[in-house]
Every structure is written in structure tokens, then in C-alpha cells.
Structure to design on (870 residues):
């Protein structure tokens, strides 16, 4: 079938059949189906040829437009022996298994297409998608196809696998940890059966029937069933408690482990001395409920990673030029003196000197500078920047491990000690008082019964107090509330690393913002034109010329005129680092720096980037770029202003100072901050007693995010790289930060109320225990009632509050 | 009463079968991904019949 690409159409309401974008610049047609670009058309052709068009039936126009910067051989490195060995998780020489991370997976069509990969790529035996993890596991025949061709085929249909340095360098934990499920299953099984066999005891059936053997059998069976709970299911509590003892601090698991052990020992004593049936049911029940609570709270976001470092930002391989020609070399093997070729949109992986080409390095992610930095031949380019524009050649001066960025990242100041976090949490503090209180009550009642001369009752009272006053209910309340808050925030697009972050955010009194990428959008620049009015024809001409260049500044100008008419450009020429020129319909257009145009305008306000325009030798004016605030952000900032101390830390120049002064005090705005400066500033604030919430987006904020009490990474594409942090916030949700913080505080209040209720329950239990009268029946009734009522209270209230806040 | 012991033994055995079935399903990875299978089961079975050259797919683009 032949495609019949047509001339640019004027119909602007056309939507691409493949990706759903409106067709603006060019529209291509195949059988009345419109496509916005060659890439999309190509995907359609591939799918159509392979009879895979049900893809469009499942979800119309939901495809991904394939990466335009892709070039053949991009994945060639995947075939190199050492890289291949790391990527494959199974091979027998014939069949091999590989799992790719594909951020582009977003709907059921994606699942369907990727699971039909064998119909497009011969040699693929089968493939299966794990949607929550955005992963595709491909099983293929190594003699028929290779890793690189599978990856390239996936890229061609719009699903580029993301392979980063961390996949290659770090040891892969390919085995999934399923022990949590085993533990819950076994605990549940034992708990259920023990309950069942305890029923005769609760209702004294054994005694009535006069069957002492039967009763003894049940008790011994209970003992047997409790062993796996103690030895396997509750292992984590004991391991964590032992760790706490070793490092000499109280943690949450310590009292739980003590309670489990105490209940078990007391029960074993009763069984062996034939004095009673023991509390095996309570013990296994507590373990079972606690495990469920934990798994609910710890439901991690599988696609997100909160501990990424520069390794997952860096590419796996770059193209190196040697006498033998171009070759892809893994980044780890790069050595000083090698010449590498960096293409458009690729990241410079090592500090290097520019040899050839027009370097326009976008450091916005690394330093926070919003405008691309221009580098001349012979100048040093630091690792981490992204080239925007044409390909460049550079010579490496430092290997990856010694580059500035890597050094910065590995400095100990950029790491966070998490045990401190846990220590300071509210649950832990209350828990400590609670444990202390319980011990006092136990001691007091022991003293009382000793004074009364009843040692049997004393033993009875002390052990049952410790059993019934187990802090588990307190913990169930907090784990379920936190779990629910995390889930609700997550469903809105705010992903927290763990439950401690909720509290940190609830307590914050100071909010520090990063500028580029956080409160301004680095991609969305507003283009202003100063000068004489341009006619429609002139605009068309300028637009057509600007479209020719991949330079980010031309791209911004072109983007501002998107949808305008476009004409062909002749005699186009690009002067690297200076400007561009071209002929459109007899008009000679020049765009570029003041030098290039030999502009006579006085260059006031140097920190604003300007692109001057000359048409047929006449100086018409200049374009200036201003970074746009996120939508609705002014409203948010005005809201927060009254409640929090607001600060702004930017790695950029102070060009936007004026724009932002409405919300930030003049001395609360700091510009041209290096990553270390940001970190130190946060530390200074904390030193003055502030609880700091930091919002940032780039690697340059990584240190500050780690240092702050709660570091939130703002990300517009959640599957993209984001720096190590405590929480990841979808950029669209930033305007609602106020509500989110409010909700965290409500979550804390729900926990406090649940604590009060569970203390009440504890008091009832203690009433029986202190008197040495706690029967297993009462324990057995109290335990599930309290657990279930607390859990439902915590979950329901936190859900209700969320609904009222519109989350 | 020995019937009761026998029943006890049988009931625990049956419960054990279910426990083992659960553990086995976990081990087979059924709990690794709780979303994709629910989507996958809705896909039609693909028919591999060769289509004539000229028939275009009968799906209409929607906006």
C-alpha cells in the first residue's frame, strides 16, 4: 500500500489517527485516516501490514508517537556481551528472557500490542506486560533475533524501552519478594484454625461433654499451629526488634515482639502445666492483623522509584568515534581521551571538551538554569547537560566516576538518614509513653497482689497485662490510617515514599520552592516581541525559518507561532552560536544574537535572552523569552503565604525576580544557587528551628530535597527521571498543594482519635487483667472486636475527610 | 468420640490443601501483578487468518 502524503492542509481540527494529537504542521493521509507526522504514519503501516489494527479499536488514537530523535543502531550496545549478560535474566543459549522498562505503556491497547510483539518481530516467542510496573517481559529465540532489534522494533512502534546505567551497573534484584504473602497466608491459616479449635473452650463444650482428651488435643493442636506463626510469620518483628536493641533505641516493633513472645511463653506454660488453654488465638490473630496492616501501608508504587541517583539518569552507552569508525561503548568503559558523538537530546555522560559542532547544553535539570548554555570549541562541558540541537563531538577529560556531577552526588551530605525519621514520628513517641505506662501498671498490680499474698494471681496479672495491653491496636490504627492516606494521595497523583512523610508534611512550617521546572515550566516559555508590528506574511516567513533550526531558542519562537502557515525556505544557513538566516518568498530573514544582526539596540537587561530579527536588512525588533508560571500557581502562593514561610531558591539568574516578588519577600528569594548552596540554606533554616518542606524537580535540588524534612520532587511526567526524594508530586497537582498538606494534617488527627479509642479498649482489657481475671474468652472477644472496629474507624474517617476535601 | 478425632484430622488436611494452593499460586506469581490479567482477559482471541490485500480495517476513527 502506498501512502499518499499531501500538502499541508488548512484543516486544523484534524486529529492524528495514531496519537490523537491535532495535526498542525503537516497532515498525512492513508485511506482518510489523518496522521500528524511520518512517525505515526509508519506505526500505522507496520500495524496494518501485520494485521494488528485492533490496537485502534481498543482505544482510538491512543498511540505513542515514536521518538523522532531515534537513529538506527541506538541499541547496538545491548548486543555487547557484558551488557547483554546484565540485561537477560535467563538464557540457555537458545531461549532468552529479558524485561524492559517501557514508560510509554499507558492503556489497554499498549498491553494488547506489546503482548502481540511476536507478530511484528520474528524470533520473539512470547511477551507479557506487567502494567503496574510498566514492564514487558519478552521471551525470544536468540538464534533468530537479537536484543537490539527487539528494542528497535519496540521503539519503532512508539514503545521505546528505557535502559539506563543503573540497569547495567547495579546488581539486579530480579527475584520478586513474595515472602510477605507467604507470611500472611500462613498466619491467616493458623489463626483461623486456632480460633476454630478454641471455640469449645470459649463455650466450655469440652467440660460439659466430660471429654478432657478432646480438650487436651485441641490445646496441643493450637500449640502446634502457633509455632509457624511465631517462627515464620512474625520473624520481621523480631528481627527489627533485635536491631533496635542492638542500636539501643526503642522502635515500634520492639513492644510488639515482646508482646508476641510474652503471650507465647505464657501460653506454653499453661499448656505444659495443664492449667489452661493459653492465648494462642490472640497471638496468631495479632500477628495476622499486623501483617495485613503492614502490607496495606507498605503498598509501594511500583513504577516509581524514590531512591534514584544519577545512574538512572545517565544513558547506558554513547557513540564513540575512533579510527575504526563509530562504535557504541558502555558509559562505564569511557576513558579519558576518547572522542564521543552526542546527538540531539542526548545527555553528556562525562566532563568533556567540545571539539566540533554547536553545543547548546540544557542544564535545567542539573543546575536549574532555564536557558541553554552555549559552548564554544575547546570549552569544557560538564556532564549531565542535554544537548539541544545538532550533533556535537567532544573529547572526554574525566571518566564518568570522577565527573563533577557524580562527585557531587556521592558526597555524604546528599544522603539521608532514615532511622532518625522513624525515631521522631508521633506513633513512636506515643508508643514509648504507652510502653512505659504498661510497665508501670504491671509493676503496680504485681506489688498489690504480692502485698495481698496471692503470688499465683500476681503472675497471672502481670502476664495478662502485658498480653492485653499490647500496643498492636495503636499500631493498627496508625498503619491503616496512613495506608489509606497514602492510597488516597496516590490516586490523586501525589506519591509518598512511606508513612513517615505524612507526618513530616503535616508539621512543616516553611516551604522552599525551586524555580525552574517547579514553579515555572521550563518548556513553556512565553515569547514576547518588541519592535514594529510584523505583517502576516512576515510572521509566516519568520516562523518558517525558525522551524528549520533545532536550536532551543528557535524552537520556542516556532512554538509560539504554531498553527500559522508555513512555507518552504531557500538558502537557509545556520551560524552556530550566532543565528540563522533564510529566504522565504523573496524575503531575507535573519534571526540571531545582537552581534549577528549587528543590532544597534542598547542591550539593556542583559540577563534576558533576546533574539533579534532582521527582515531584508531592516531591523524589526527582538523576541524575548519569559518563563511562564504554572497555571493557578499565583492562587496557591497567595494561599500559602499566610500560613507558611515561603522561600525561593533558584539556580537561575534573577530575571524573574520582578514577577515573583508578589509572593516572596525580597530577601526570601535567592538566585544563582549552586546545589550545595541550596542544601546549606535548608540546613540553616532547620538550624533556626524550622520544619522545612522542599519542592524541587532537578538533580540540582537533590541535596536540598534530602536535607529538608520532607523533599517533594515535582514531575510533569511521572515516568521520567526524578531525583531522590520523599515524595513525588504530579506537576498538575501542584496548585492543590494546600489541600494536600491540609489532608496530611487531618490524617494525623484521625490517628490521634483512633489512639484515644484504642486506649479506651486497652483500659477495658486492663480492668480484667489487673485483677488477674482475664480469661482467654475475654481476650479472644476483645482482640478481634477492637482490631476490626479501629481499622474500620480509621479507614472510613480518612476516606470521608478526603471526599469532603475533594480528593 | 474417635469419629471426632478423625473429622478433626480430615478438616485440618482440607484446610492444608487450601493453604498449599494459596502458597503455590503466590509462588507462580499470581500476586505479582494484580492489574494486567484483568485487562488481558477482555481481549478477543486473535485470529491469524490472512486478510485480503485490499480490505482496510473496519474501524472508524473516533475523536
Amino acid at each position: 500500500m502506498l501512502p499518499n502524503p499531501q500538502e499541508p492542509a488548512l484543516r486544523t481540527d484534524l486529529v492524528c489517527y495514531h496519537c490523537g494529537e491535532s495535526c498542525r504542521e503537516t497532515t498525512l493521509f492513508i485511506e482518510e485516516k489523518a496522521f500528524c507526522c511520518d512517525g505515526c504514519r509508519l506505526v500505522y503501516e507496520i500495524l496494518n501490514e501485520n494485521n494488528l489494527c485492533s490496537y485502534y479499536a481498543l482505544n482510538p488514537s491512543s498511540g505513542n508517537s515514536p521518538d523522532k530523535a531515534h537513529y538506527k543502531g541506538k541499541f547496538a550496545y545491548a548486543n555487547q556481551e557484558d551488557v547483554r549478560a546484565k540485561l537477560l535474566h535467563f538464557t540457555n543459549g537458545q531461549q532468552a528472557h529479558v524485561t524492559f522498562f517501557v514508560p510509554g505503556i499507558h492503556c489497554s491497547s499498549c498491553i494488547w500490542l506489546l503482548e502481540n510483539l511476536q507478530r511484528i518481530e520474528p524470533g520473539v516467542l512470547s511477551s507479557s506486560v506487567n502494567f503496574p510496573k510498566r514492564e514487558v517481559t519478552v521471551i525470544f529465540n536468540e538464534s533468530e533475533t537479537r536484543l537490539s532489534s527487539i528494542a528497535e522494533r519496540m521503539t519503532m512502534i512508539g514503545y521505546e524501552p528505557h535502559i539506563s546505567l543503573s540497569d547495567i551497573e547495579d546488581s539486579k534484584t530480579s527475584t520478586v519478594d513474595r515472602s510477605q504473602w507467604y507470611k500472611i497466608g500462613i498466619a491467616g491459616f493458623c489463626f483461623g484454625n486456632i480460633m476454630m479449635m478454641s471455640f469449645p473452650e470459649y463455650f466450655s463444650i469440652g467440660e460439659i461433654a466430660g471429654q478432657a482428651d478432646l480438650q487436651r488435643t485441641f490445646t496441643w493442636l493450637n500449640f502446634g499451629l502457633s509455632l509457624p506463626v511465631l517462627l515464620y510469620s512474625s520473624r520481621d518483628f523480631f528481627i527489627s526488634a533485635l536491631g533496635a536493641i542492638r542500636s539501643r533505641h526503642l522502635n515500634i516493633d520492639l513492644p510488639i515482639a515482646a508482646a508476641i513472645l510474652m503471650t507465647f511463653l505464657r501460653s506454653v506454660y499453661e499448656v505444659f502445666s495443664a492449667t489452661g488453654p493459653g492465648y494462642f488465638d490472640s497471638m496468631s490473630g495479632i500477628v495476622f492483623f499486623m501483617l495485613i496492616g503492614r502490607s496495606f501501608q507498605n503498598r509501594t508504587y511500583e513504577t516509581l522509584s524514590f531512591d534514584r541517583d544519577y545512574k538512572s539518569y545517565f544513558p547506558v552507552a554513547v557513540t564513540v568515534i575512533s579510527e575504526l569508525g563509530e562504535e557504541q561503548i558502555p558509559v562505564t568503559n569511557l576513558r579519558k581521551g576518547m572522542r564521543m558523538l552526542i546527538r540531539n537530546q542526548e545527555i553528556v555522560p562525562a566532563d568533556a571538551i567540545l571539539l566540533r559542532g554547536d553545543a547548546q547544553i540544557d542544564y535545567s535539570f542539573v543546575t536549574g538554569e532555564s536557558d541553554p548554555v552555549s559552548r564554544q570549541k575547546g570549552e569544557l562541558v560538564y556532564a549531565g547537560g542535554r544537548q539541544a540541537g545538532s550533533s556535537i563531538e567532544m573529547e572526554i577529560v574525566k571518566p564518568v566516576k570522577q565527573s563533577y556531577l557524580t562527585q557531587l552526588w556521592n558526597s555524604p551530605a546528599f544522603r539521608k538518614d532514615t532511622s532518625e525519621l522513624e525515631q521522631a514520628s508521633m506513633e513512636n513517641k506515643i508508643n514509648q509513653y504507652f510502653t512505659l505506662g504498661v510497665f508501670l501498671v504491671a509493676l503496680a498490680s504485681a506489688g498489690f497482689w504480692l502485698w495481698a499474698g496471692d503470688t499465683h494471681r500476681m503472675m497471672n496479672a502481670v502476664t495478662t497485662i502485658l498480653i492485653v495491653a499490647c500496643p498492636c491496636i495503636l499500631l493498627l490504627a496508625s498503619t491503616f490510617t496512613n495506608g489509606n492516606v497514602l492510597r488516597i494521595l496516590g490516586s490523586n497523583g501525589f506519591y509518598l515514599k512511606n508513612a513517615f512523610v505524612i507526618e513530616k508534611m503535616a508539621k512543616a512550617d516553611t516551604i522552599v520552592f525551586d524555580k525552574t521546572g517547579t514553579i515555572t515550566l521550563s518548556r513553556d516559555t512565553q515569547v514576547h516581541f518588541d519592535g514594529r508590528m510584523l505583517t502576516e506574511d512576515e510572521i509566516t516567513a519568520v516562523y518558517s525559518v525558525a522551524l528549520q533550526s533545532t536550536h532551543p531558542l528557535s524552537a520556542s519562537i516556532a512554538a509560539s507561532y504554531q498553527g500559522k502557515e508555513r512555507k518552504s525556505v531557500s538558502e537557509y544557513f545556520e551560524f552556530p552560536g550566532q543565528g540563522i538566516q533564510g529566504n522565504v518568498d523573496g524575503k531575507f530573514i535573519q534571526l540571531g544574537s545582537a552581534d549577528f544582526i549587528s543590532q544597534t539596540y542598547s542591550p539593556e537587561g542583559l540577563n534576558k535572552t533576546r533574539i533579534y530579527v532582521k527582515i531584508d536588512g531592516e531591523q524589526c525588533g527582538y523576541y524575548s523569552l519569559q518563563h511562564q508560571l504554572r497555571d493557578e500557581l499565583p492562587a496557591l502562593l497567595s494561599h500559602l503565604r499566610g500560613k507558611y514561610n515561603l522561600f525561593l531558591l533558584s539556580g537561575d539568574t534573577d530575571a524573574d525576580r520582578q514577577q515573583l516578588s508578589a509572593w516572596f519577600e525580597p530577601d526570601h528569594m535567592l538566585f544563582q544557587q549552586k546545589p550545595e548552596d541550596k542544601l546549606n540554606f535548608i540546613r540553616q533554616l532547620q538550624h533556626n528551628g524550622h520544619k522545612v518542606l522542599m519542592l524541587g524537580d532537578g538533580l540540582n535540588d537533590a541535596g536540598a530535597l534530602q536535607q529538608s524534612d520532607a523533599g517533594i520532587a515535582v514531575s510533569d511526567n511521572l515516568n521520567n527521571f526524578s531525583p531522590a526524594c520523599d515524595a513525588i508530586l504530579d506537576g498538575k497537582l501542584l496548585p492543590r498543594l494546600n489541600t494536600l498538606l491540609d489532608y496530611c494534617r487531618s490524617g494525623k488527627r484521625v490517628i490521634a482519635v483512633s489512639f484515644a479509642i484504642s486506649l479506651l479498649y486497652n483500659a477495658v482489657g486492663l480492668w480484667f487483667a489487673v485483677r488477674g481475671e482475664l480469661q482467654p474468652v475475654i481476650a479472644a472477644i476483645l482482640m478481634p472486636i477492637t482490631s476490626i472496629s479501629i481499622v474500620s474507624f480509621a479507614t472510613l474517617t480518612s476516606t470521608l475527610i478526603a471526599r469532603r476535601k475533594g480528593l | 468420640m474417635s469419629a471426632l478425632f478423625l473429622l478433626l484430622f480430615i478438616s485440618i488436611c482440607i484446610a492444608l490443601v487450601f493453604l498449599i494452593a494459596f502458597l503455590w499460586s503466590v509462588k507462580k506469581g499470581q500476586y505479582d501483578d494484580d492489574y494486567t490479567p484483568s485487562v488481558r482477559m477482555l481481549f478477543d482471541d486473535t485470529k491469524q487468518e490472512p486478510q485480503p490485500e485490499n480490505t482496510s480495517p473496519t474501524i472508524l476513527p473516533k475523536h
